[in-house]
Amino acid sequence: MPHQHIEPMSKLIVFCAPSGSGKSTLIAHAMEQLPQLTFSVSATSRPPRGQEQDGVEYYFLTSQEMRRRIDAGEFIEWCEVYPGRYYGTLRSEVDRLLAEGKDVVLDLDVIGAENVKKIYGSQALTLFIQPPSIEELRRRLTARGTDTPDVIQTRIERAEYELSFAPRFDCRIVNDKLADAQQQVVSTIRQFLSQS
Ligand code: ADP
Ligand code: 5GP
Fold it and tell me: How far, in Å, from the CA of 124 to the mean position of ligand 1?
C-alpha cells in the first residue's frame, strides 16, 4: 500500500461580539499570530465607512444586487442586521478559501454565527467576545469617540440583546485585559485547529 497523505480538513472560526467589545482588535492579532488563517470577506448593502475598500472589509453591493444574490442562493447565510442593511457570507468566497486549504475567519452577528454552526458543526468554532461589563462597554465606546450619545445608547441596547446569545457559543472570552484576551483567543484557536 502506498503511503497516503491525508490533508487535515480546513476549518472555520466565527467571531461574534457586541460592537465595541474589541472584536476587530482581537481578529487582527489572531491573524498576525496564526498565518494559516484567512478572512472571509462578506457582502453588504451598507455604504463603505471611512477608509473601507470594496473587496477588503466587504464587497459593497446595492440593495438590489444583494437581494438578487440572496434569491439566487449565493449566500451560506445572510441577515438584515440593521433595518435595510443586509450582510451575507458568500458561498463562493468560503468554498474558494477552504479549497485552498486555508482556515477561514468569519466576522458575523449572533444569528449568522448560529447558522454557520448549524451548517458546519464541528468543522466550525464559534467564539463570543464579551466586554467585562455593560458599563465598561459604554466607557470604551465613549472613549473611542466615533459615536454620538444616541448612537452609543442604541449600541448598548443591542449589546444587551446580543449578550443573551453568549451561552450558545462554543467559547466565550471576556476582553478585560487586552493581552490576556489576545492570548486566550490564540490558544483557543490553536487547540481547535490541532483537533482532527
Ligand atoms: P469592535 O471591533 O468590537 O467594535 P474595537 O476592536 O474597535 O471593537 O475596540 C473598541 C475600542 O476599545 C477601541 O478603541 C479599542 O482600541 C479599545 N479596546 C479594545 N480592547 C480593549 C481592552 N481590552 N481594554 C481597553 N480598551 C480596549
Ligand atoms: P458593521 O456594519 O459594523 O461592519 O457590521 C455590523 C454587524 O454585521 C457586525 O455584528 C458584523 O459582525 C455583522 N456581519 C458582518 N458580515 C456579516 C455576514 O456576512 N453575515 C452576518 N450574519 N453578519 C455579518
Answer: 25
